[in-house]
Amino acid sequence: MTRWIKQPDNYSCGPCAIINACKWLGIKSTLDDVQHFAFICNSTYDVGTLEPDFDRALRVIVGSYTKIRHEKSPRADRLFKHLNESEDNAAIVMCYYHNGDAHYYFITGVPGSKNVFRCVNRETKETVSYVKSKDVTTDLRTGANRKNMLKSHVWFLKKKDIDDDDE
User: Fold this and answer.
1) Are the CB atoms for 122 and 7 separated by under 8 Å?
2) How many CB atoms lie within 10 A of CB 155?
3) What is the DSSP-derived secondary structure letter of residue 167?
4) What is the set of domains in the chain, with CATH numbers?
5) pLDDT tens-digit series, residues 102-125
6) What count of other Cβ atoms lies within 10 Å of the Cβ of residue 161?
7) Is pLDDT of 93 > 80?
8) Which of 23, 26, 36, 124 is deepest in the core (most CB within 10 A)?
9) What is the mean pLDDT of residues 38-56?
10) If we measure between CA atoms, which residue out of 73, 79, 69 comes closest to residue 160?
11) Residue 19, SS3?
């Protein structure tokens, strides 16, 4: 059973999402790696992790083990489709904005229902939570309005087969 991690502070959700992606891929990673990954992501206490830095770090750290597709503000049905197509070979990293602050979390699956996502480090007291699809849909939309042009970001991850070429 995977021992997922929850961020230890207010700004390391991006590095923790990458650590959880590593754990999902079977790459040894622990909470002790947070500071190292925060350095790779250029994470700071004041700003956290900016999306371009996260994207670069994710590709550097796990890109040789997984195919990565990045989309801005996809619809929730795209998340379900991705997770259901590949069962244990697909996961998602989500970044959404609330009150101008970004939060990254990891989605490992849809446990037997189109109404719930299994999420890691999604701003709850629990490390793993089962989140209703309507709440994930709200995360996808949060920040995207006329006053605030911040868009949610989603990284669709799919484990590479041994025979896959680097793309």
Assistant:
1) no
2) 25
3) -
4) 13-159 (3.90.70.10)
5) 899 999 988 776 688 999 999 767
6) 8
7) yes
8) 23
9) 93
10) 69
11) helix
How far is the first Cα of the chain from the last one, in angstroms, to the nearest whole number?
A: 30
* pLDDT of 164 over the 60 cut: no
pTM of the model: 0.89
Report helix, strand or coil for 59. helix
What is the pLDDT averaged over residues 8-37?
93
CA gap 114, 82 in Å, rounded: 12
Q: Is 37 left (phi over 0), alpha (psi -120 to 50) or beta?
A: alpha
Token representation of residue 154: 């989603």
Q: Where are the alpha helices (DSSP H) in 72-125?
A: 76-86
Residue with tokens 């480090």: 121
Contact 105, 93 (CB under 8 A): yes
